[in-house]
Design brief:
8 helices, 66% helix, 2 strands, globular, single chain, Fumarate Reductase Cytochrome B subunit, mainly alpha
Length: 212
């Protein structure tokens, strides 16, 4: 196996802070909305924890923005500009996930520091990082202090619209975590990708050059 340094320290720290924050926010969010059923903590305690980790997530998002935009590394999230290349790459990757993986085929995408994500990951992560997470953070901020952000809430269509956006995105991110963890187990061993996000080094099988 050859080792590729794929995840620098800032990326790993951001990733695990993000993961912990999302998990805590999901649990406390369920507790806030369905406190009669869950009953893990007092309602007020759940709200306080939810708010604290909400601001941690906002701060962590700004770390992501600064790191990826000011270093130029945001390009790893940009799908191929040629439509044909993007479509064909996505089709190959979808076939691998839906069929080839179970037949022992090789993953068509080989990550490198400058080409970290396959086309499907690029379009998914770009949408999440530049649209869905900002929407979740802004809607959460509005709900944190309705009076302070009253004008902005009215511009967005009212408190029910803001709350609905926040809840639907909560459902999306809750589902995304399960999918993300499942995909993380699809390395050469079930823990390979998870280990890489701890050590920074992704392991990949080294192929012998073809003989003439």
């Amino acid at each position: 196996m050859k080792k590729i340094y794929l995840h620098p320290i800032p990326v790993r720290v951001w990733h695990w802070v993000n993961a912990l924050s999302f998990i805590v926010l999901i649990i406390t969010g369920v507790q806030i909305r369905y406190h009669e059923l869950l009953g893990l903590t007092k309602f007020e305690t759940a709200v306080d924890i939810h708010n604290i980790f909400g601001f941690i997530l906002i701060f962590n998002f700004f770390i992501w923005v600064v790191y990826y935009f000011f270093t130029g590394k945001i390009k790893i999230y940009i799908p191929p500009l040629r439509i044909k290349k993007f479509v064909l790459g996505s089709m190959r990757q979808a076939r691998y996930y839906g069929y080839g993986l179970f037949m022992g085929d090789e993953n068509p995408h080989h990550p490198s520091p400058d080409n970290k994500f396959n086309p499907m990951q690029q379009i998914a992560y770009l949408s999440i990082m530049l649209l869905l997470i900002p929407l979740q953070l802004v809607s959460g901020l509005f709900l944190w202090d309705i009076k302070m952000f009253e004008e902005w809430i009215n511009l967005a269509g009212g408190i029910k619209i803001v709350d609905t956006i926040h809840v639907f995105l909560f459902l999306f991110f809750s589902s995304f975590i399960f999918v993300h963890v499942y995909l993380a187990t699809l390395g050469h061993t079930p823990m390979a990708h998870i280990k890489a996000m701890v050590t920074g080094y992704e392991e990949e099988e080294e192929h012998e050059p073809a003989s003439a």
